[in-house]
Design a protein that fits this description.
The chain is of the alpha/beta class. Helix content is 36%, strand content 13%. The protein has an eight-stranded mixed beta sheet, sandwiched between helices.
């Protein structure tokens, strides 16, 4: 694996510290120390692997704390009362679904949440970004959907990020759409897998959906409670979104009455163009409070990180992309507190 140039950097050279205001519409309220006020993390981890009693004081953890310092409050991020299962979906390709899944999951885990990423995309990019080692013998989410393998046995701990696990995808998943057709309750295979064990020792399950509205995406929507939609800040941003929302309503009507679109995240925002701001304004006018205040800018660091088997949260925690995803994850975590109160 190539040397990570950000290991010794601490902060990004991509953007000056004072330039965030030009690129991001983000809150200044972020934990300065991801472990401040948090109870110790149990050694009884979700997949049986032992972890430290708290986040280790590694160079990555130090860099993350340094990046988060000065962003405001030190209050701990609240945990949801029960595990939140969120599908990250948009049938349009290239909008940042995998990037969003991986970095939101990493940011949540770095702030004391216990997170499982389920890679439901045959391309397996989320698995690559989280450093999962895969070969022809790897047991993957395919074996869960088609052969009833337990997800607990499939999940692997993510290197360098305590409290984060990944159920990987392999190329076998490409044939799952066809194989699922002949199976009983084909739309609910993933839901049945989640119901096969107690998820009380997890706070979040994030499902990275493929860029389609086929059986894999339907399985994700039947298994989850919430849908998060990344929307690219470009001309074709809303193209096809209506079909996605109609599919969500169909699944809600016939297969999962508790399903809702809870979060919309604007990605690939370029503050230098008027078009990006127009798209952002239009999305906010249509969807209101569903849209996170945080905007994810275009960032070279975000694009580079997967080639090192990392999320941008560990590759360069001081970059604009990492800070934006940190703020987005924080909004999602504190929205859970609002849902609990409601």
């Amino acid at each position: 694996m190539p040397q990570n140039p950000a290991d010794n950097a601490g902060v990004s050279r991509e953007t000056p510290a004072g330039a965030y205001g030009d690129l991001l519409d983000v809150s200044g309220e972020t934990s300065a120390d991801p472990t401040a006020g948090q109870p110790p993390v149990s050694r009884e981890t979700w997949n049986g692997a032992a972890t430290a009693d708290s986040v280790p004081d590694t160079p990555l953890a130090q860099a993350a704390r340094a990046a988060m310092a000065g962003r405001g409050h030190e209050e701990p991020w609240p945990r949801p009362r029960s595990c939140r299962i969120i599908s990250v979906a948009n049938q349009k390709g290239g909008v940042g679904k995998t990037t969003t899944t991986v970095n939101i999951a990493a940011a949540l885990a770095m702030n004391g949440q216990r997170v499982l990423v389920v890679d439901l995309d045959p391309q397996g990019n989320a698995s690559t970004a989280l450093g999962m080692e895969r070969d022809n013998q790897t047991r993957s989410i395919y074996h869960c959907l088609v052969e009833d393998e337990e997800i607990r046995k499939l999940a692997q701990p993510v290197p360098d990020i305590p409290n984060l696990w990944c159920a990987p995808a392999t190329i076998d998943l490409a044939g799952a759409e066809i194989e699922l057709v002949s199976l009983v309750a084909r739309e609910a295979r993933l839901k049945r897998a989640f119901a096969a064990y107690d998820t009380s020792d997890l706070d979040y399950i994030l499902i990275d959906c493929p860029p389609s509205l086929g059986l894999l995406t339907v399985n994700a929507m039947v298994a989850c409670d919430e849908v998060m939609i990344p929307i690219q800040c470009e001309y074709y941003a809303l193209e096809g979104l209506g079909q996605l929302l109609r599919n969500v309503e169909l699944v809600k009507s016939h297969l999962n009455t508790g399903l809702s679109v809870s979060t919309i995240l604007l990605t690939m925002y370029d503050g230098r163009t008027r078009l990006a701001q127009q798209v952002a304004d239009e999305v906010r006018s249509h969807f209101g409070e569903l849209v996170l205040k945080s905007l994810v800018p275009r960032s070279v660091r975000v694009s580079e990180a997967p080639s090192y088997g990392q999320s941008v949260m560990t590759y360069d925690p001081g970059s604009t992309g990492a800070m934006a995803y940190l703020e987005a994850a924080r909004e999602i975590a504190f929205r859970a507190e609002g849902l609990n109160a409601g």
